[in-house]
Design goal:
about 325 residues, Rossmann fold
């Protein structure tokens, strides 16, 4: 009887050992898959050549700009992990440059949309992003502003700072997708430097019941920044950014503020991060660089976006 029990115990032990090995192998595979997925960009490197456009202005600003682009990064504390900066390679020969700060969406760290930042930098902007995963409160944007102030003023003998006195702190813009859209609202209304922003872009995000369920609080009625809101028909269909919520957020923004709302009709939620980039770039070109060609995309009855077949449900106050 004892021998039988011992044999049974050994058999069970052997089975458990095999199960443990199988579980370990599965965990290793899943971890490997996670590493691979974490490295897959959320924005294709060639998106500027593949995304469809519906107007000459949109097409112009979706293309790469005239500047070659360089990159700088430095470590940052807490969950930001690092500041990731793209800038025109010929920055030394340029006057002070405007800045676009990026606020991350859920699971989309700055390192996953480098192509988007390179594109913006090619148009003469400095861009900055972080690895923050919970950016809804706008604090990553706030810390980016503080870091920009620091490197704009930092000068020490024997140490080169290519950004010294090259950042135009009077021309700061901010853009965010999904959770990052709530982050934009909070950056321009609730953070210490909320009044520093001259232009904002909110992509596929509103003050919805979904946002409130995650306790992502925000108040668009406090917005005093020129604001472009674009979502996709995939967002509205799936109730990620319902049209009624988009309109509510838009209407809560004061009519003293320049604002535009539009729905892109050929993409889904994730693609919205870059599908509207022609007009996103034009928005920042107009408000941060005074580009009158970009202005024609939005201003007036004959504004290009009004007649672009890729966009619908247009509302404007310019």
């Amino acid at each position: 009887m004892e021998n039988s029990n011992i044999r049974n115990e050994k058999k069970v032990s052997g089975i458990m050992g095999k199960i443990a090995i199988i579980i370990l192998i599965i965990l290793i595979i899943l971890k490997g898959c996670g590493v691979i997925l974490s490295k897959i960009p959320s924005v294709p490197n060639d998106y500027t050549k593949k995304v469809k456009t519906g107007g000459e202005i949109e097409e112009k600003y979706l293309k790469m700009g005239s500047h070659e682009v360089d990159y700088y990064e430095t470590g940052a504390m807490m969950s930001f992990k690092k500041f990731e900066i793209y800038y025109p390679k010929d920055i030394e020969s340029m006057d002070k440059l405007p800045v676009v700060i990026f606020v991350n969406g859920t699971g989309i760290k700055g390192s996953k949309y480098s192509a988007l930042q390179k594109h913006m930098a090619s148009w003469g902007f400095i861009t900055i992003a972080t690895e923050e995963e919970y950016a809804w409160n706008g604090f990553s944007a706030e810390m980016s502003v503080r870091y920009l102030e620091f490197i704009n003023e930092y000068k020490e003998d024997g140490k080169e700072n290519i950004f010294y006195n090259k950042i135009d702190m009077d021309k700061i813009g901010v853009a965010g997708h999904s959770q990052g859209g709530i982050g934009v609202i909070n950056a321009i209304t609730d953070q210490k430097h909320s009044d520093i922003y001259k232009a904002a872009v909110i992509l596929s995000s509103t003050e919805t019941d979904i946002a409130k369920a995650f306790l992502w609080e925000s108040d668009s009625s406090l917005i005093q920044t020129n604001t472009l809101m674009i979502a996709s028909n995939g967002d509205t269909d799936k109730k990620i950014s319902p049209l009624e919520s988009l309109k509510k957020t838009y209407n809560q923004i004061s009519n003293d503020v320049s604002k535009v709302l539009a729905i892109r009709n050929d993409c889904d939620h994730g693609e919205m991060l870059y599908y509207a980039d022609g007009y996103v770039t034009a928005w920042f070109m107009y408000y941060l660089q005074g580009d009158n060609e970009a202005k024609k995309a939005f201003v007036g009855e004959n504004a290009e976006i009004n007649n672009n077949s890729l966009y619908q449900n247009i509302e404007k106050n310019l």
